[in-house]
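re: ur question from the group chat, yeah i did fold both. here u go
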Amino acid sequence: MTQPRLVLPGDTVMVTRRTLRRHHLFRPDAAIRQLYLYALAVSAREFGILVHGVTLMSTHEHLVFTDPKRRRPDFLRRLHRLVSLGTKALRKWEGATWDHERTSVVRLLTERAVIEKLAYVMANPVKAGLVQHARDWPGVTVLPHELGRRTFRIERPAVFFDPRNRQWPDVVELSLSLPPTLEQAYGAQAVREAVGEELRRQEQLARTEVKERGWRVLGADRVRRLSPYRRAASFELLRDRNATFAVGRGQKKAFFAAASELRAFRRAYRQALEQWRAGLRSVVFPCGTWWMGQAHSATVQT
C-alpha cells in the first residue's frame, strides 16, 4: 500500500515525472513545446495553480508551482493526461507515455528549499550533460530573470485538441508568478538574484561532474535531432527513495520538524483508516488528507 498524500493549501512543490522507459518522447522541438505549454496553461487555469518554474527534458518534466486551493492531485492528473494523449497523437505513439512509477511530488518547506529547487530545475540539462549552460537548453525552460515576469502565449496545437470544443481556446496565456513566500520575504528582484546565484553554483558543480564522468556535452543541435523513439542510455538508479519534502542545505532543525510532522500525519491517518475500515464513518482524518475526503466524503480536520 502506498503512503497517504499530505496535501495542504498554499504548498509549493517540485514535481518530476518520467516518460516510459526513458524514451525521448519530449525531444525539444516546436511541436512538443507548444503541446506541453498549452496543456500546462489550460490545466493551471482550471485549478488555480501558480506556476513558478518549468523545464521539460526529452525524457521527463520538472515543474515548480504553488497550490493555493488544494487542487494539486486534480491538476496533475489533468496535466499528465493531456500531455500523454497529445504526445501519442503527435509522435504516433502506441501505449503508455508516462512511466508507471508514482509521480514525484516534493513539498518545499523553507525559502532555501524553494530557491535550490528552482535552480535545480533550471540546471537539469547541464547536469545531464546536454548543454553547457541552462540558457542553452532549446526546450521548455525558465531562467532566473524570467521568474515572475515571463508570459507564454500559446496557440492551440494542431493535434488532439479539437477546435470545435469550447474548452480549448484558440490562444491561452501562462504567466509565471514568484513563489508567494519568497516574494513576501525578499522582494521580486532579490528572489531572482538568489536563484541566479544558486543556479551558477549548481551549473559549476554539474559541469565538474560531467567532466569527471568523461561525458561529452551533447549540445543543443544534437539534442534537437534525437529520435523520440530511442531510449536514454545513461545509467539511472531505479526505484530509489522517493523524497516527499525538502528543506534545503543547512536546515537541520527544519528537517527534523518536517520529518516529525510527516510521521505524525501518517500515524494519525493509519489510525483513522483502521477505524473507517471497521465501519466507523464518523472518524475524522488528519488535516492534509486528500483522497479519503474526495473519494469517500470522509470528514477531514481543517
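okk and heres the other one u asked abt
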Amino acid sequence: MIQKEKLNKYVRENIDRYLNLDISNQKISCPYAINFVEQEFLSLMKQSGIDEERIKEVHKLYKGNKSKYGWYRGKGTPEELKSAFLEISKVRDFNIQNASPDGIRESMKLFGLGIDCSGYIYNVLLEGFKSINMEDQFIKSLAWQEEDRTGASRASVEIFSGTASTIITDLDSLSNLDLLLLKNKEGSYTHMAMVLKDGDQLKITQSVFSIIPNGVRIDNMRVEENIPRFEFKVDIGTDWNILYTNNRIEFRRLNILVDDTKVHRT
C-alpha cells in the first residue's frame, strides 16, 4: 500500500528544490528549457550526407553531456542543473559570486539549462517514489513507448497518459499528485501540470514557457460546479479556462495511485 502522506511530503520537497535552486548563495526559480536542437541537428547531419554510424557517434557524445551547452535537455534534477551551471560559468570565466538571482536565471536560459513540463513532473514524482522505496513500481507503471528505454531523457507527456493513468470525471475529488494534460486541436498531448492541495485550496504546479516569468511555478485553481477555474493568465497562447471548455484539458490520476474515488477508465 502506498504511503500517500509521505509521498506527498517528499514530492513537495522536490518541488521546492526546483523553486529554490541554491546557486552562489542565491535562490533561483528554475527556468523553462526544452530540447528542440537534438532532432534538428540529427536531421541536418543526415541531409548533409554524413553516414549513420558517424551520426550515432556524435549523438552518443551529445547524450553523454559532452557538449557543455543544453545539458540534460530540459530533464535535469536540481542538483544536475546547479552543477552544470557552475561548470559552464568556470569554462566561460563568469564571476558569479556577486551575481543577482535574475542574472543567474537569465544565464541559465542562455545556455539551455532548465526543465520542461514532463521532465519536471517526472523528476519530482520519481524522487518522491524513491523516498518510499517504490521507484521501480513507479517507472514500470508509466506508458513508455519502449519498455527497455526509460528514464528522464525519455519522459514525455504521453508516458503519463493511456495505460498509466485514469481520467477523472468528478473534479471535486481532485487531490495531490493528480495530473493535468493539455491537448492541441488534433488531440495530441502538448503540456502537463500537477495538482497540489493545501487544505481546501487547489493549486497547479508546472514548468511552463507561456507564462512570464517562465519556468517552475505554483498557481491557484478552484472548481465550481465541476468546472475548473484557473487563477493565472497566460502570456502566450489560449487562456486555460477556454481550453477546458474546448475539451483540450484532461485531469488524470496515475493508476499506481488510483483508489475508489470517481474516475473513468480509458
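fwiw on the second one: Residues 36 and 73 are 9 Å apart (CA to CA). The two ends are 23 Å apart (CA to CA). idk if thats what u expected
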